[in-house]
Amino acid sequence: MRVLVVEDEVDLARAVRQALEEEGFSVDVAHDGESGLWNARTWEYDALVLDLMLPRIDGWTLLDRLRGEKDVPVLILTARDAVSDRVRGLNAGADDYLVKPFSIDELVARLRALVRRSAGKASPVLEFGDIRIDTAARAVKRGGEPVHLSAKEYALFELLALHRGELVSRTTIYDHIYDEGDDTLSNVVDVYVANLRKKLGKGLIETRRGQGYILCSDPSAGRFSSGTR
Ligand code: CA
Hints:
- The structure is a single chain.
- The chain is α/β, with parallel strands linked by helices.
- The chain has helices spanning 10-22, 33-42, 59-67, 83-91, 104-118, 151-162, 170-177, 188-200, and strands at 2-6, 26-30, 47-51, 74-78, 96-99, 125-128, 131-134, 139-142, 145-147, 167-169, 205-208, 212-215.
- The strands form three sheets. The protein has a five-stranded parallel beta sheet, sandwiched between helices. A four-stranded antiparallel beta sheet has the order 6-7-8-9, covered by helices on one side.
- The protein binds calcium ion (CA).
């Protein structure tokens, strides 16, 4: 999952980035509203963490301009007791809020819930065939046995699982599992896919040459039933 953090308090932004990266998120940080808006328009994020009081463009304006273009889930950060700020943010199209100072654990849990809801999956557990993904614990089991995935393998698998039965383009994959600081080679995704097939079953992920990948909705059926969710 790739998250954009728009926060002008540099220390707080750094702490949030570090904590989210430890939890397996790819994170970009913008320190003012203008560059935040540019990032949000340019990349495909799974969620935005948006401070409201920002230089150049404030959080409400950013949200207002973004909402006509993208429905990425947005979690706003507000000052304590600023009820009117919160209401204004939610009215402007924010999906959730946290009051500063907040606990990083709560931020992570709320972000995960937001991303799940936006993918139409309310439960933190995704199950199909004999595979079970616990998105809260970032743990995968196959036939009841734990499967060990690297951070990027997990990120790719979760992305495909949230959109199973749908074609996920390579561009979408790059946007969601890497951040701006990652230096990647284009064939790395193929390596992750090969590893996932090895660990989770050969027929699980279908390659559409030149287009992207589809996670089989029901691996036990041995064929793809596209369009089902
Ligand atoms: Ca601020």
